[in-house]
Amino acid sequence: MGKKEGLKDRLRREYLKKRKSLSEKEVEDLSKRVRETFLNSFLFKDFSSFMLYYPIKNEVNLLPLLKVLLNSKKRVYMPKVLGDEIFPVRVIREEFVRGRFGIPEAEGELADKGEVELAFVPGIVFDRLGYRIGFGKGFYDRFLKDFKGLKVGVLYPFQLVEKLPCSPWDEPVDLLLLPNKILKGGGRNERGNDNPDGDLGRSCSRWDNLLHFGFKEEGKGRQNFVRGGKEGKG
Ligand code: ADP
Ligand code: MG
């Protein structure tokens, strides 16, 4: 572990601290706006199965979506940690048991990853290509590696930075879901294994690949989405 590993650790600590300083009301208000942005988007309309996460340490709270999704005849999954891996568990009722790390988990059989069409991905800090820093154990990197569905990072505005150090095993998310805004991530680590500890001095990927979805920063209005390179109405 050289000094570059230290950079990720430092960012992790710094952004955890920022998130910790949010008031309960800020977490509630911002989380509500994130949920509304999701519910007003094609993500809710066009997808039929979702993996949520149980919010800890002031993470954006998507849990109220559970009822909404179940009532809308969508399939819902929650992550369960076994060994070094995350597995989706189908949620039928809103009931949780204490899992590893004390994080509540759904009870039930492990489902196939392939059943999940969209996975919400929490994180401590994200960059504009969708790279993220998590708690430092790489759980989501391993989960996302062979995940074929849509990867949606969930974050507060202050958790978005221009550029993060990234490692060869880091998996970027496809989209970034924020209060009132959805951004395109989908960066690819094109550097191979030359820089395993990450380095801000090098680009993780193509910065010109950034596409903004047509959400307005504030307020309402018609939402245009860019999907598969073509523009369509939301
Ligand atoms: P996080 O993404 O949680 O911030 P890191 O990206 O720093 O954490 O990863 C933490 C550790 O997890 C790394 O040291 C790495 O060895 C391990 N890791 C992550 N993804 C994989 C993977 N796909 N295969 C093997 N090890 C992995
Ligand atoms: Mg990682």
Major sheet size, sense and barrel closure: 7 strands, mixed
**What is the CATH top level name?**
Alpha Beta
CATH topology: Rossmann fold
Q: Which oligomerization state do the chains in this entry correspond to?
A: single chain
- What ligand molecules are bound, each kind once? adenosine-5'-diphosphate, magnesium ion
Total number of distinct structural domains: 1
Strand order of the largest sheet: 3-2-1-6-9-11-12
CATH superfamily: NagB/RpiA/CoA transferase-like
The poorly predicted ranges are 189-234
Short description:
The chain is of the alpha/beta class.
Topology:
Blueprint: H1 3-20, H2 24-39, H3 42-46, E1 49-51, H4 65-71, E2 75-82, E3 85-91, E4 96-98, E5 104-106, E6 118-121, E7 125-127, E8 132-133, H5 139-145, E9 150-154, E10 160-161, E11 175-178, E12 181-184, E13 224-227, E14 230-233
Parallel strand pairs: 1-2, 1-6, 6-9, 7-10, 9-11
Antiparallel strand pairs: 2-3, 4-5, 7-8, 11-12, 13-14
Polypeptide structure, described:
This protein is of the alpha/beta class and 234 residues long. It has one domain (3-232): NagB/RpiA/CoA transferase-like (Rossmann fold, 3-Layer(aba) Sandwich). The chain contains 5 helices and 14 strands. Strands 3-2-1-6-9-11-12 form a 7-stranded mixed β-sheet, sandwiched between helices. A 3-stranded mixed β-sheet has the order 8-7-10, with helices on one face. It starts with a helix and ends with a strand. Magnesium ion is lined by residues 134, 138, 141, 170.
